[in-house]
Specification:
The complex is a heterodimer of chains A (about 850) and B (about 110). Chain A is an alpha+beta fold and about 850 residues long. Chain A contains 25 helices and 23 strands. Helix content of chain B is about 55%, strand content about 15%. The chains are: A alpha+beta (about 850), B alpha+beta (about 110).
């Protein structure tokens, strides 16, 4: 029995060897193998065979690649020549693909950046934020909030071995002393000493273990060190900070590297929490008092989270009724949406999904352009393809050539898009309010992403032309002087155009609705005034001198009103001015059930109503004439409804031991964003809570009046800078996310319709050229110019109208979902749908109009003469 | 004439010398014997293939044997172009080497 060479090696060899001589070479190898077998043992002969394979494989591979490269060179040369010859076609394809790539890559940057949040800590995986679930304000369902009570962190650490470390943070805003002047600082946090060990924010100077151990110690960021101490060494220096009538003289124990922007919260100052406790007294930090703290816990590895949440909740409920604890991994905070009392606004996964879907659609629109145009283009090049086939190019070679061309187009536009991105990255960053830096992105992942993208684009745009064009009969083309018939392709091409316009029209509809909703929330009657109102935080000696300051301001006729309160209507919940949720014990005359009611509360003064131009629906507002108003309450209509109270005026109300009468009911006004319903609100007078001065100005001489306020302010309060905000600016800020969405949609939809129109422009150009003779004959036989224009545009109109009907339900569904996030929203009227559809049809007709009119008005003699 | 590489030159010459028995394995043996170096099958095949492509060699397909695992044998013969190329090579070699004869002896005696 004859010995055979090793089977695996033989089959690998078979695969590598050039097909032309494969059999002979295998024979040669086998002959050598048999000779070896005669001299030596079977195993050493096998070894020799394997050795041959390993040794010779690269040589054969190179040999075969060499010839492929030669062909590639030819393909590229032809492609370049064709690109050069058909400039319009190349231009349209390149621009479209470039925009598609730029959208995809920017979205890719964005996603990578969003995913990078909070990933740079050593213990990232084991750190969790404690969320509490409590009954929602307003009564129905529950709400998650990230603020907890002070004792929680210690309780967790003491009772559960699974908790390695726990730290609280609490943000306050106040004023810092810069060489005698006080500057407003909003990112000042108090925290536990363990914070610096738990998170890995690197310290430049100081020791993370001891930096915050002592009360009255503070660590500051590099940026702040430069701001307050210039070139001096800040360590050991004293840093003065004022907040809520309290002064802190803090010792700087360390300097932090600047906090990366991709953190779910950033801070400038970290002071030891004991400092704050020392100032307010232990009493303010029990289970029964303030829930101002965000608690983080570093847990052991491999923990059953559900089990632990249950154990935490059991402990928690011994102190706080009806509330549950949830653990949120640090890495999912940024993408996890916003809970109550969030320090900074987070992204939602939905936005990421939205942006990536739209970018992929943009890419597809560009690819469809390529497919449509290259089919039209190859039809003109049918002679070239025919001759290639006659000379001996197989189907595979033609496919290779066409794919090669589509790769070339993708590659050139990819390079162009990278340049485009570099140019527009700063604008993009300011648009989405992020700081994406090319240097911070992971180059490996980026390279893989771009590589995969270009492969996909090449495949999508090249595969259909490659498959459909490589299989036609060369004899027909070369013999008949005719181009390839595109009949078979026509329907497919039209479907592609329809899809392009479906996406474009859907985007236009969404853009218009987002814009309309944004207009709506900005223009809606809020029930309060918002124009010409400025406010600022009352600090320093102002609270003591408020009366005389007030009188001084009122001397100016341009100041309509001055008021003070604990909060401003329509303000961001995470910022300093807010309506505080009032929990705890509430009681009133005629209370019917023990159901918990959550009230938002403002502490106000007697001028509040006039300043914001609120309206009363019943009773009266607080007045200086009644001394007892210090203990009385005004509720809004929503509160009365929630409390289910009959003829409320004069009824006794008890808010955590403060007992008084309900003297009036204020008409519902929006004191939160329009995402939220108007919820129960209580107004009361509690001077301890006053934090803002609100000044209503006349619309004339705004600037002078503000100058006057500034002057008066510095007379009363020389050490504090006058930093004010216009209420309407503040409200604008509130819809920042929607504004970003609106702008992004605007760009996306403009680009989509632009690329789609480029595509049909190119198609129309080819169609007009192909049908030149037909048009000539029609004209000779008496067709009118308008008749021919209609003939040429009919096809496009039909398909774009079809696109309308597909896109409407999609856009309707998307917008319906999006508008759910607003308690107050616009109707999804049919008008915008029709308008967008008509706009798309008009734009498309205008685009093809140039080509069709040119074709229709051409002299038939020119097109028919040389026949 | 395009210049041939050294390997191509040696392989072409071997095919010429082996006359009717020039196929891969015999060429390999021949080259191993005359150059004293170890030629692998691929290092013979690649120049051989290139010579065939460039028209210096023509081929005939021979018999199927069991020793070759049931595969046919491919014989190579030098074409007219190949002969011309060889003649040119000879001429170039002669002119280039004239006057520098006896290098081997010189190297050995020094």
């Amino acid at each position: 029995m004859q010995k055979k060479p090793p089977q695996i090696a033989a089959s690998i060899l078979r695969w590598i060897l050039p097909p032309k001589d494969r059999d002979y070479l295998l024979g040669d190898y086998e002959e050598s193998f048999q000779s070896k077998l005669e001299e030596k043992s079977a195993s050493s002969a096998s070894l020799w065979y394997w050795g041959q394979l390993i040794q010779t494989a690269p040589e054969y591979l190179f040999e075969s690649l060499y010839w492929r490269l030669i062909m590639l060179k030819n393909y590229l040369k032809t492609a370049f020549r064709n690109m050069h010859r058909a400039k319009l076609y190349s231009f349209i394809n390149l621009i479209g693909l470039m925009i598609g790539f730029a959208c995809c890559i920017l979205t890719f940057f964005y996603i990578q950046y969003e995913l990078s949040y909070d990933k740079y800590h050593k213990n990232t995986k084991y750190i969790y934020r404690i969320l509490e679930e409590h009954p929602a304000h307003g009564g129905q369902g529950t709400q998650l909030s990230n603020s907890n009570y002070y004792p929680l962190a210690d309780a967790l650490k003491d009772n559960f071995p699974e908790v390695i470390k726990a730290a609280r943070i609490m943000r306050i805003s106040g004023f810092a002393n810069q060489k005698g002047h006080f500057i407003s600082e909003n990112d000042f946090f108090f925290t536990d000493p363990e914070f610096l060990e738990m998170f890995s924010f690197p310290l430049i100077t100081g020791d993370s273990k001891t930096a915050l151990k002592e009360p009255y110690s503070v660590v500051i960021t590099q940026e702040m060190a430069e701001k307050y101490f210039g070139r001096e060494n800040p360590t050991g220096q004293t840093f003065s900070f004022k907040e809520g009538g309290r002064d802190y003289d803090l010792k700087i124990t360390g300097v932090l590297k600047n906090i990366p922007k991709n953190s779910h919260f950033t801070f400038d100052f970290l002071a030891s929490l004991d400092t704050f406790i020392g100032k307010l007294g232990e009493k303010a930090f029990s289970w029964k008092s303030n829930d101002w703290f965000v608690t983080y816990a570093h847990l052991k590895n491999n923990i059953d989270l559900k089990e632990l949440e249950k154990k935490f909740t059991a402990l928690y409920q011994t102190h706080v009724k009806d509330e549950r604890i949830h653990l949120q991994p640090l890495t999912s905070i940024h993408l996890g949406g916003n809970y109550a009392a969030e320090i900074e606004t987070n992204t939602t996964r939905r936005y990421i999904f939205l942006f990536s879907t739209i970018s992929v659609f943009m890419m597809f629109i560009a690819c469809f352009n390529y497919i449509n145009l290259s089919i039209a283009r190859y039809a003109k090049r049918s002679k070239e393809i025919g001759i290639r086939k006659v000379i001996g190019a197989g189907k595979k070679d033609l496919i290779r050539q066409i794919i090669c061309e589509s790769f070339l187009f993708s590659f050139i536009s990819l390079i162009a898009s990278i340049l485009l991105i570099m140019l527009f990255l700063p604008e993009f960053n300011s648009l989405i309010n992020r700081e994406i830096d090319l240097r911070h992105l992971n180059p490996g992942i980026l390279a893989i992403g771009v590589f995969v993208l270009i492969i996909i684009v090449t495949a999508v745009s090249g595969s259909y032309p490659a498959l459909s064009l490589s299989s036609f009969n060369p004899v027909k083309v070369l013999k008949s002087h005719q181009n390839i018939s595109l009949k078979r392709f026509g329907v497919f091409g039209n479907i592609l155009v329809t899809l392009q316009f479906t996406v474009s029209i859907a985007l236009i509809i969404c853009t218009l609705f987002v814009y309309k909703q944004l207009q709506y929330v900005q223009k809606k009657q809020l029930g309060t005034d918002k124009e010409h109102i400025i406010y600022y935080m009352m600090r320093g000696t102002l609270p003591d001198q408020y009366e005389s300051f007030n009188n001084e301001l009122k001397k100016n006729a341009n100041i309509l009103n001055v008021s003070t309160s604990s909060g401003i209507p329509m303000s961001v919940s995470s910022g300093p001015p807010m309506a505080y949720p009032i929990g705890g014990h509430l009681d009133w005359e005629g209370k019917k059930s023990d159901d918990r009611i959550n009230l938002y509360g403002y502490s106000v003064d007697c001028e509040y109503l006039k300043t914001f131009n609120l309206e009363m629906s019943e009773g009266r507002f607080f007045s200086k004439e009644y001394a007892s108003d210090r203990f009385n309450f005004v509720l809004n209509e929503a509160a009365i409804k929630a409390m289910d109270i009959q003829s409320p005026i004069g009824k006794v109300f008890n808010m955590r031991g403060k007992k008084g009468q309900i003297v009036g009911i204020v008409k519902d006004f929006h004191y939160q964003s329009l995402h939220e319903k108007i919820e129960p609100l209580i107004l009361h007078i509690e001077p301890w809570w006053y934090r803002f001065i609100i000044i209503k100005l006349k619309s004339e001489n705004l600037f002078e009046t503000i100058e006057f306020v500034k002057k008066t302010h510095s007379e009363f309060n020389p050490y504090f800078r006058f930093e004010y905000t216009f209420l309407d600016d503040h409200i604008e800020q509130f819809y920042r996310a929607e504004q970003v969405l609106s702008t992004v949609f605007y760009y996306f939809s403009s680009l989509a319709i632009f690329i789609a129109c480029l595509g049909i422009f190119g198609l129309a150009a080819y169609a007009a050229e192909n049908r030149r003779k037909e048009i000539g004959i029609r004209k000779v036989l008496g067709a009118s110019v308008p008749g021919i224009i209609i003939l040429l545009s009919k096809g496009y109109t039909r398909w774009i109208l079809a696109a309308n009907f597909i896109s409407w339900p999609i856009a309707y569904y998307a917008m319906h979902k999006w508008l759910q996030s607003f308690a107050y929203r616009v109707d999804l009227g049919i008008k915008i749908f029709i308008l967008s559809g008509l706009a798309a049809v008009c734009i498309a007709l205008l685009t093809v109009g140039y080509q069709t009119i040119k074709a229709a008005t051409a002299n038939p003699v020119d097109s028919l003469r040389y026949e | 004439m395009k210049y041939l590489t050294r390997q191509e030159e040696l392989v072409l010459l071997s095919v010429f010398r082996l006359k009717d028995n020039a196929y891969l394995i015999s060429l390999q043996d021949h080259l191993n014997h005359f150059t004293g170096k170890d030629w692998s099958i691929s290092s013979v095949y690649i120049p051989l293939n290139r010579l065939e492509k460039n028209g210096y060699l023509k081929t005939t397909i021979g018999e199927v044997t069991e020793k070759r695992g049931g595969k046919a044998i491919k014989y190579y013969q030098v074409t007219k172009t190949g002969l011309k190329a060889l003649a040119e090579l000879e001429a170039i070699n002669e002119t280039m080497w004239s006057g520098v004869k006896g290098l081997v002896e010189k190297l050995e005696s020094s």
